[in-house]
Design a protein that fits this description.
Residues 17-291 form the NADP-dependent oxidoreductase domain. Helices cover 36% and strands 13% of the residues. The chain is an alpha/beta fold. The structure holds NADPH dihydro-nicotinamide-adenine-dinucleotide phosphate and 1,5-anhydro-D-fructose (NHF).
Length: 316
């Protein structure tokens, strides 16, 4: 089974399916990347904040020097967490050195909110539990990222966790348009309006947490579990596929890219085998009707930023 490529607004190609690596530990992510390469994955998603770029870089160096893949077949994505325009290049260079590649395919602003780091590299909170933020406009950050494209260090740039108004501001000034907005998408948080708004403007949505992040550190026993959803299960059995494969195919059939995380070769293979079936338009609609605006990370991760003017979830 081979990967499908999406054409980005700048003409470059991005494999529609990629491997997510948030929570993939430094001592397991290298083997995960190498197994994924053997299965056929070519698109890998990481971030400065995942603390695994060095190990991913080591694994990529190995498969490149073995001749298993050519650099131009790979699509490597990483993200900028701290938005200060003065430190964009410095922060980028840290990721770049760890990934050990001569260019990065896609560099994203991780979140529109200018979060501050604490001394351990985690996110700083004040005594009330709110994130400590800076007074930075992501437009200034974006302009610095464009210089990385001009210098050939990055092929494409984009954003993550932005709403349509924030994207509109970027489109208003961009010399290099954002090729993607990477956002949480699954049947309980379908983001239909934002996905369509982006499609009309040639911005591809990359769906993160397509299984609603089963291994998120803050999961509770009574949280909904998409793999057990009756509608998803019944569509899966009609196609002789697993619920996980239906969740991924849902994103594919919306015209989006999708980046499921796994460190297990069996599950990585299962997640890769989604290009030999297709959901009907009725099945897509019935999955969309499961939407309940349930975000996997709203309480645990985003809540401390809810009062920031750039909090992205009060708008579509
Ligand atoms: N831009 C952003 O702010 C964000 C980006 N992301 C990106 O998106 C990626 C994916 O999202 P993530 O939150 O990790 O969660 P996912 O929704 O991809 O879920 C990952 C979990 O599902 C399990 N799993 C994988 N495949 C299967 C399968 N076929 N059947 C059953 N279980 C399966 C994994 O276990 P196992 O590994 O053991 O297989 C893991 O526990 C991230 O890793 C990251 O790269 C995610 C969140 C935010
Ligand atoms: O990318 C990430 C994974 O998801 C988390 C919750 O949204 C964040 O910690 C982080 O930004």
């Amino acid at each position: 089974m081979s990967l499908r490529l999406l054409t980005l607004s700048n003409g470059r190609k991005m494999p529609q399916l990629g491997l997510g690596t948030w929570k993939s530990k430094p001592d397991e992510v290298g083997n995960a990347v190498k197994s994924a390469i053997d299965i056929g994955y070519r698109h890998f998603d990481t971030a400065y904040a995942y603390f695994n770029e060095k190990e991913i870089g080591d694994a990529l160096k190995e498969v490149l020097s073995d001749g298993k893949v050519k650099r131009e077949e790979l699509f490597i994505v990483t993200k900028l967490l701290y938005l200060s325009p003065e430190s964009v290049r410095k922060n980028f260079m840290e990721s770049y050195k760890k990934l050990q590649l001569d260019y990065i395919d896609l560099y994203l602003i991780h979140t529109p909110i200018p979060l501050q780091a604490d001394e351990t590299g985690g996110l700083k909170k004040d005594e009330t539990g709110a994130y400590v933020t800076d007074d930075i406009d992501y437009l200034d950050t974006y302009k610095e990222m464009e210089k990385l494209v001009d210098d050939g260090l990055v092929k494409s740039i984009g954003v993550s966790n932005f709403n349509h108004k924030q994207l509109e501001r970027i489109l208003g000034v961009a010399k290099h348009k954002p090729v993607t907005n990477q956002i949480e998408v699954h049947p309980y948080f379908t983001r239909t309006k934002l996905i369509n708004w982006c499609l009309e403007r040639n911005i591809i949505t990359t769906c993160y947490s397509p299984f609603a992040s089963l291994d998120r550190p803050w999961a509770k026993d009574d949280d909904p579990n998409l793999l057990k959803d009756q509608v998803v299960k019944s569509i899966a059995s009609k196609h002789n596929k697993t619920p996980a494969q239906v969740l991924l195919r849902f994103c594919i059939d919306l015209g989006c890219a999708v980046i499921p995380k796994s460190v297990n070769p069996g599950r990585m293979k299962e997640n890769f085998e989604i290009f030999n079936f297709k959901l009907t338009p009725e099945e897509v609609t019935s999955i969309q009707s499961l939407n309940r605006n349930w975000m996997m990370s709203v309480d645990a991760f985003w809540h401390p930023a809810r009062n920031h003017p750039f909090y992205p979830f009060n708008e579509f």
